[in-house]
Amino acid sequence: MSESMTVTVGLDVHARSVRLAAVRADALLDERTFPYDEAQIERALCRWPGVRCCYEAGPTGFGLYRHLVGRGFDCQVVAPGLVPQRPGDRIKTDPRDARKLARLYAGGLLEPIYVPSPELEAARDLVRAREDARLDRMRDRQRLSKFCLRHGRLLPTSAWTLTRRTWLGQQQFEQAAQQLTLETYLHAVDLVDHRIQALERAIRETAEQGPCGGCWWRGCAACAESTPTPRWRWSPRSATLPASRVRKS
């Protein structure tokens, strides 16, 4: 099918709705809004044989992409930050966004992004959960240390060691309300420590269960040829870094 006859569809995807715009060359063929239902969107796309479609990456993830690709559709996910913007064009509505995606994609002006495999996405979720837990621990520790400081109790040692934890467990306050406050803060720190330990074990196990017994995560040449997924090396230090600073090997 020639490029001039190919139907290109832009999808503006939200949590509860999807706006569809279909174009052929410069002509707008159809546009409508659907509830977020993958089967209903699939039926709408079946009207145009050889259709090409795209949508922006966002909080809804890659479920729609995987569904459409699994049904044989040519679907791509594009990065919102790489969609060309005209100066002064600040009006954003679902119909405008869908038409814009369709026309830009038909003109070859959109670059698709890499969509991770379900296994890699699950591993990423683990790393994100670990990072969230690290931030929670930082906040919980700060609350506890500030509480102690307000009552003239300076924490021993310069780091959160076993010595400091033992010292905190030995603190007693005359007021029952303050004692309960200390125990609440301390319990929160203990809980988040256990969360991080469990997540680190899960990340380590996931890293060792790659397609080639763990080497997928360490730059195996065979895995590099069979799949374009990024390869990661697990280490306790990398788990303490923000997700945006962990680089591909």
How would you characterize this protein structure?
This protein has 249 residues and is α/β, with parallel strands linked by helices. It folds into two domains: 104 residues, ATPase, nucleotide binding domain (Nucleotidyltransferase, domain 5); 128 residues. 45% of the residues lie in helices and 14% in strands. A five-stranded mixed sheet has the order 3-2-1-4-5. A hairpin with a 3-residue loop joins strand 1 and strand 2. Helix 4 runs antiparallel to helix 6. The longest helix has 33 residues. The radius of gyration is 25 Å and the shape is elongated.
Low-confidence stretches: 215-232, 237-249
Structural class: alpha/beta
Total number of helical segments? 8
- Average the pLDDT over all residues and give the rounded result: 86
- How big a fraction of the residues is strand? 5-15%
Helix content: 40-55%
Tell me the major beta sheet: 5 strands, mixed
Tally of separate domains: 2
Radius of gyration: 25 Å
User: Tally of extended strands?
Assistant: 5
Query: How is the largest sheet built, in terms of strand order?
Result: 3-2-1-4-5
Shape: elongated
In sequence order, what are the helices and strands, one letter per element? EEEHEHEHHHHHH
Distance between the termini: 40 Å
Topology:
Blueprint: E1 7-13, E2 17-24, E3 27-35, H1 38-45, E4 52-56, H2 63-70, E5 74-78, H3 94-106, H4 118-150, H5 162-169, H6 176-208, H7 221-226, H8 236-239
Parallel strand pairs: 1-4, 4-5
Antiparallel strand pairs: 1-2, 2-3
Helix pairs in contact: 4-6
